[in-house]
Design brief:
The protein contains no helices and 31 strands. The chain starts with 6 loop residues before the first strand and ends with a strand. The chain has a single domain, classed as Neuraminidase. Strands 7, 8, 9, 10, 11, 12, 13 and 14 form an eight-stranded antiparallel beta sheet that branches. Strands 2, 3, 4, 5 and 6 form a five-stranded antiparallel beta sheet that branches. Strands 15, 16, 17, 18 and 19 form a five-stranded antiparallel beta sheet that branches. By secondary structure, the protein is mostly beta strands. It is globular.
């Protein structure tokens, strides 16, 4: 899981090349691994993909799937049972764009794009057993609280909006950082979210809530971990609340991408930022709506043991059944922004004994000038054929000063152990 066998995929990566955690970017199927990300060449933002052929150990050329509106328009990727790739991309408060590969297990050519939705951002994408595609994305409004919408595309049909899954309780800016994962039955949908809300009386002091809910009927009805019904749209008051914080109290939370273990239990990674530090945890339910919280900071490698640990990453399981967690360590300054801090270094945690303990390792070498961050791991979003340990992709380079900055960041892929 270290970077000793890492592959440089691009030197034109954008300031969000491998973001966001909601949007899965890696698919392995029948001897190939497909990896997507967001470049920013001179002609504008471009969604790109390359394919590793495992038999020959060679990578394809870089194929361009389409353009993106700005650095928030990166891809969400999945695969169906016949091997066709599906991708959502482009939007930041705009309609998203959907394309399908023209041939199974081949990323070189794609269908014409199909736009749909209104004011959508941050897509998460699944493929169900019957080949239906399920999408969640944030919906922004001018004069009402923002929502997390759910869309579905049945085989041979167009995309249709189904419902609002989650809503903010406040009418200003909101973000949901909502990631989806299948249970081992490929029928139960697990959703984890970091709800970021801006109440009018604390406009510069957000409320942040890490929450969870699941659906056993394809997204029609949702429950908490104890089976209690969650009325839709859910809010930070009605779903499982794993952790919460108020900015005015000096406590802000982040959440990473969710995964489901071999025993069917969801694992939700999250972090708690305070004035001058950050701690990260893995949470899993153990009954009656209660959650166990495993702290990860104590497993940081020795050279980073006194650094802050931010959950700008996620958790995933390969065929080994052991959890793999990626996160970002940094030397945070009091009250300073942490998103893209130059001291950011990527760390990987490999579970031992089913998660009773973890082994932490630094990915690459410490670079005081360029951050290594925004890890995005493969997880079973559809018909992926997961390897023993999931691979992941990350960005080495700066975040930029604006959404439209065109940068030359490096995009690296790290194979599983």
């Amino acid at each position: 899981m270290s970077a000793r066998n890492a592959v440089l995929l691009s030197q034109q990566g954008s300031g969000r090349a491998t973001a966001y955690l909601e949007s899965p970017k890696i698919v392995s199927f029948q001897g190939k691994t497909h990896v997507a990300w967001l470049d920013s060449p001179e002609e504008g933002f471009r969604v790109c993909i390359r394919t590793l052929d495992h038999a020959s150990e060679t990578w394809s050329e870089k194929y361009t799937i389409g353009e993106a509106q700005d650095n928030h328009g990166g891809p969400a990727l999945t695969i169906d049972g016949e091997g066709y790739l599906h991708v959502i991309y482009y939007a930041h408060h705009h309609p998203v764009r959907y394309r399908k590969s023209l041939r199974p297990n081949d990323a070189s050519q794609w269908s014409e794009y199909e736009p749909f939705g209104h004011n959508l951002t941050y897509p998460s994408l699944l493929c169900a057993k019957d080949g239906s595609l399920i999408l969640t994305a944030r919906r922004s409004y001018d004069e009402r609280p923002w929502e997390l919408e759910m869309w579905r595309k049945n085989p041979g049909e167009t995309w249709q909006r189904e419902r609002a899954l989650v809503s903010s309780r406040h009418g200003i800016y909101s973000q949901f950082a909502a990631s989806l994962a299948w249970g081992s039955d490929h029928e139960t949908i697990h959703l984890a979210t970091r709800i970021y809300e801006m109440p009018e009386d604390e406009i510069e002091q957000p409320l942040t809530t890490v929450g969870y809910m699941k659906s056993e009927d394809g997204g029609v009805t949702w429950t908490r971990s104890d089976g209690g019904e969650v009325p839709l749209p859910a809010t930070a008051d009605t779903m499982d609340v794993i952790a919460s914080g108020r900015g005015i109290e000096g406590r802000i939370l982040n959440a990473g991408s969710i995964a489901v273990g071999p025993d069917g239990r969801p694992w939700v990674p999250y972090g708690v930022r305070t004035e001058d530090s950050s701690e990260s945890y893995l949470a899993s339910p153990y009954g009656d709506g209660k959650w166990r919280h495993r702290q990860l900071n104590k497993y940081l490698p020795e050279e980073l043991r006194d650094w802050a640990l931010f959950m700008h990453g996620g958790v995933s399981f390969g065929k080994s059944g052991q959890a793999v967690v990626t996160a970002v360590a940094m030397r945070v300054q009091p009250l300073a922004p942490d998103w893209g801090d130059p001291t950011s270094e990527l760390v990987c945690f490999l579970a031992r004994d089913g998660g009773a303990r973890f082994e932490g390792m630094l990915v690459g070498e410490i670079d005081a000038d360029l951050p290594s961050w925004m890890p995005n791991m493969e997880r079973p979003t559809g018909f992926n054929e997961m390897l023993a340990y999931p691979s992941y992709v990350y960005t080495k380079g700066v975040r930029g000063e604006s959404l439209s900055d065109q940068l030359s960041n490096e995009v690296w892929w790290v194979p599983g152990e």
